[in-house]
Structure formats: C-alpha cells, structure tokens
Amino acid sequence: MTFLLKYWYNIENVSQTIQPLCRCMKWFGFMPFTLVLRSETPPTTPALGEPRPLLVDLVMHPGDVLFLIGWQLYIGHMYFTDWIYATLEMPVSKIMICFTITLYFVQAAVLCSVQLLVAFSKAKIMRTLRLLEFTDDLLEHLSAGVNHRQQHLGSVLLILGSIICTTITFVTQWVLTKLFMDHISDLWLKFYNPMAVWYADALFSVQVCSLVTFIGGLLAFRSRYRKLNEFVCTHFNQQTESLNDEVVHRYLKCVAVCHDALTDAVELFCNTFSSLVVFACFTYMLFNIFSMFAIGALMSRPSINVLFVTLFYCVSDCLFSLHIIPIMKLGSDVRTEGTRMAVLVHRTINETPLSVNAIEQVNVFSGNKYVP
Fold first, then answer.
1. Residue 227, by phi and psi: left (phi above 0), alpha (psi -120 to 50) or beta?
2. Phi, psi of 239 (to 5 degrees)
3. How far apart are CA 262 and CA 348, in angstroms?
4. What is the largest CA-CA distance in the chain?
5. Is the distance from CB of 229 to CB of 45 less than 8 angstroms?
6. Alpha carbons 81 and 201: distance in angstroms, whole number
7. Per residue in 249-290, pLDDT tens?
C-alpha cells in the first residue's frame, strides 16, 4: 500500500500522466521508445512565457525495437498462411468473401504502415509533450492547474475498461463458436482454426490500443481547454471594477500564449495519430457493411451458417462502436471548447466593466493580432 501511495503522489506532470498510454503503445508496436525521466531537476516555476526543459526523453531500447519488429513480422505472416485461402470456400455469398479477403489484406498492409509512421514520429511526439508541459506551466501561473493524478487515474481506468470490453467480445465470440460449431458446415473448420482466430484477435487488439490512445489524448486536451475557459469566465466576466490594465495585460498575455500552445499541441497530436483513427474508422465501416449484408442474407435465406457469421460480425462491430463513438464525441468537445474562447472574449468586451485601454487589448486579442 505504501508503494501505491508513493506512486500516486509522485504524479506531478503530463509525462507521468500519459505513462500508461505510452506503455500500451510500445507493447503493441506503435512507439519503439521508452518515456524516461531526466535526472536533472528543472525549475519548478519558470518565468511567464519561458518553457522549462522537458522533464522526460524518449529513449529507444533494444526491447522496444523488438516489439515493433515482432508485430510487423506477425502481421505480415498472413500472406504465407494456408487458412486465408480457405476463405474462398466459406459458405457465404461471394460478395462477403471478397470483402473479407480484402479486409484482411488491407488490415495487414495498412496496419504495418501506420505502425511505422507513428514509430518514426519521435520529433512530433516530443514537441507535443513540450507544448503540453508549457501549457500546464501557464495554467499554473493562472491558478488553474491540471489535476494530473485525476487524469492518470482516468487513463488507467480507460485502459482497464477497454481491456474488459475487448475480453468480453472475445469471450462472446468463443461462446458463439462453442454453440454453433456442431451445427455449422464443415467448411468453417478449414477457416475457423486457432491460427486464424488468434490473428484476427491480435489485429483487433492493436486497433483498440490505438483508439484508446487517441481517446486519452482527446480527454487531456479537453480538460485543458476547459480549465482555460473557466479562468476567462472567472476573472474577466465578473461585474467588478477590480481588474486594472496591468492585470488585464498580464492575464491576456498568459491566456493568448496558452491557447496558441494548446492549439499547436492538438494539431501535432492529430498529425501524428490521426492515421490510426482513420484506419480504425475504415475497418469499422467495413464491419458495418459486413453486418448489413449478413443481416440481409439472414432475413432472405436463414440458415445456421448465416446466423453464425451475422452474430460474429455484429459482436465485432460493437467492439469498434464502443471506441469510435467516444472519439466522435470527444473530438466534437475539443473543437467546441477550443472555439469557445472567441465567444468568451467577445462576452468580456460587451459585459465586463473594463477601462478603455483594457478593452482595446481584449479587442486586439479577439482579432488575433495580439503580440505578447
């Protein structure tokens, strides 16, 4: 218990917050790096607008490279297996057979490319971490600091929840197999063998890992945008005369720099990891098509074989839905919170009793002409 308390109270920055997500990315072959804390102690309270040295570094260890190479080899070995050719004899329509083969080949090729693309994005990842730490320092100056322990707990719960959902999905597929294996055609036994099942589950797990990472990043950005917007609501949109020009100038400088840094971090994060989500959405769309074809075939020509494949596709489709839908919601929230600053600034101009000089400064900030 002492170790857990010590671990919990030592979470003080964004690098320690995202450590569980980075480990998951490394284990699934996306980031052949290890997040290592630097030995030197940087200044805890840097001057306003001055970034402090990055607390961590991304170090490539031999074991990290082995994870990447191992996943590349395992994903690529599908082209040399016999079970993929048994797909041509599956007791379903030719359209579904073509879609299934296309899905496996596209998954293998694109997933290998996406893993390599993220693995060679070390500079972008480091830049994103630097911007996030810089943003957190500015929020500390505004007395609107981020609760890193709470965000770390959220990341751990997010990973555990995803593991539970994925496990339930795999168990459900196993139960369906046990229920239908004695009634479906013998042709299924050529295709539905342990090697094929493990391969499909591995691809699902890799894609789920990428989606969990993207969800964790969106949660971090949304919380920081909300902290910044709450500060503007609290300190500018108040019906008091306590704000003088010097205070307004200092707050505006900090808010403007913080908002720009956070926006740049979001852009870098999306440039680095958006390919993972696009690929997952493509797979999700294909599973939706498979499910619709299977349901249509089940309604027009019901049989045990069609019922089995329908339930199988629908269960896999639900697994992606549990991750894609939150990403759509969180992406919309990040965009809304990011653009809400313009509304708050105009509300400050119209409703807050500031001096003429202070209002001119807010107007300059509103027109994106503010120079710190």
1. alpha
2. -85, 65
3. 21
4. 83
5. no
6. 16
7. 777 778 878 888 898 999 999 888 888 788 888 778 877 877
To the question of pTM greater than 0.70 for the whole model, the response is yes
- Look up residue 146 and give its DSSP letter: -
Give 69-96 as a DSSP string.
HHHHHHHHGGGG-STTGGGGG-SS-HHH
Matching residue, tokens 């020009």: 245
Structure confidence at residue 290 (pLDDT): 75
Average pLDDT, consecutive stretches of 10 residues, N- to C-terminus, the chain (372 residues): 55 81 87 73 49 68 87 78 64 67 75 84 87 87 80 88 88 81 65 71 83 90 89 67 65 81 90 83 78 80 77 81 87 88 68 56 51 35
Residue pointed to by tokens 């995202």: 18
Give, for 36, the enclosing helix (H) or strand (E).
strand 34-37
Nearest CA among 167, 166, 147, 144 for reference residue 155: 147
CB 54 within 8 A of CB 79: no
Tokens matching residue 104: 């496996």
Distance CA 155, CA 316 (A): 24
Q: Retrieve residue 293's tokens.
A: 């074809």
Q: Are the C-beta atoms of 107 and 203 separated by less than 8 Å?
A: yes
